[in-house]
Design goal:
heterodimer, A: alpha+beta, globular, B: mainly alpha, rod-shaped
Chain lengths: 179, 178
């Protein structure tokens, strides 16, 4: 029994991501390492994106043609990370536990809680990292047991949530399972 | 041998005719008179030319036959039209010649600009990987926007209104009743 508990604790501990990493984009105060997610779920995400560096600059230039405000936002963003997984193959409590661990580490690292919602079929946590009163990063973690989907997002950079909300409303977000 | 024999025949005829018609300058006329005094042949030639001129002037005027005058008028009108065409073309060329180079330069410049714009349009074709990344970014922003909006609605409906606003309303009503 003790050895089983130890293994479980070890597994849970191994999922806990280091909040701040070492070099490059990973040394950015707004960066959050979600690399353990793939191991946690053990399957490919429904949606995955990790856009930064040169490709992000190209994306900003491409956006200039159709939406200059979006291009302006993207020039101040240094990373867009998204992982969306299907929930039906994983125990909901395990995912909630992972999310809570990440939340605790973020708060310990000085991230501010913007939204915390815990309902029967939906959990949402949103955090922002402030550096010199400027937003350096944003994290959104969402568990939707009604749709059997969970999403983890990290946007790194000098971002304005109001601008994200305004620009984001222009693009329709289809149900993740239809994506 | 007279002096007139040494002179060019064409020049000689022209000079005699000009002297008789009074077309020579004063200096030329003076030299011509000196020549007449030196050479009798010259004086004779001049005398003959004056006689011919006098006889022509005394002739009765002759009416030109209608066919001849018609032909002349027809030819004159044709020449007039031809000259008008030439003059008009010359005027057009004179007017446009200073503008020709600037117009040419402007046309070349316009062609360069249009070609660069056209080539710019063709090169703005987005790489599929970038287009996919742009779609991912849009989706992410839309997702964040939606989560924020839905959460705000849920907080208002499930927490703010029942727990705060309703209680405030009850408190105010109680206060008013008392």
């Amino acid at each position: 029994m003790k050895s089983t508990l130890f293994i479980l604790l070890f597994m849970v501990g191994s999922w806990i991501p280091p909040v701040v990493a070492q070099s490059g984009i990973e040394s950015d105060p707004g960066f959050v390492n979600f690399s353990d997610l793939d191991d946690l779920f053990g399957e490919d995400p429904i949606i995955e994106a990790n856009i930064h560096g040169a490709i992000l600059r190209l994306v900003a230039e491409a956006a200039e043609l159709e939406d200059p405000e979006l291009a302006d936002l993207l020039r101040r963003v240094r990373r867009v990370y998204v992982r969306v997984f299907d929930l039906d193959r994983l125990d909901l409590d395990t995912v909630r536990s992972y999310k809570d661990d990440v939340s605790r580490l973020l708060v310990e690292d000085g991230w501010d809680t913007v939204i915390t919602v815990r309902k029967r079929d939906e959990d949402v946590n949103m955090y922002v990292k402030l550096v010199d009163e400027e937003i350096a990063g944003m994290v959104v973690m969402s568990i939707n047991s009604y749709d059997d989907e969970t999403a983890f997002l990290n946007i790194v950079g000098d971002i304005d949530p109001e601008q994200i909300g305004r620009i984001g409303r222009k693009f329709g977000v289809s149900r993740v399972s239809d994506f | 041998m007279s002096i007139s024999e040494h002179l060019d025949e064409g020049w000689w005829d022209d000079s005699v005719e000009a002297f008789v018609d009074g077309d020579l300058s004063a200096e030329e006329a003076s030299r011509f008179k000196s020549l007449m005094e030196l050479d009798v042949a010259v004086a004779t030639e001049v005398k003959m030319a004056k006689a011919i001129q006098h006889s022509f002037r005394n002739l009765d005027s002759v009416e030109c036959p209608d066919p001849v005058s018609d032909a002349i008028l027809k030819r004159a009108r044709a020449d007039l039209i031809a000259n008008a065409r030439v003059n008009a073309w010359h005027a057009v060329r004179t007017f446009f010649k200073p503008l020709l180079r600037p117009l040419l330069a402007m046309t070349i410049l316009l062609a360069i600009v249009l070609s660069s714009v056209w080539s710019g349009r063709t090169t703005t074709k987005i790489d599929p990987a970038v287009a996919e990344a742009l779609d991912d970014v849009k989706w992410t922003l839309a997702y964040v926007s939606q989560v924020t909006r839905q959460t705000a609605i849920a907080v208002r409906a499930e927490a703010l209104e029942p727990l705060v606003l309703e209680q405030m309303k009850d408190a105010v009503e109680t206060f008013i009743d008392n």
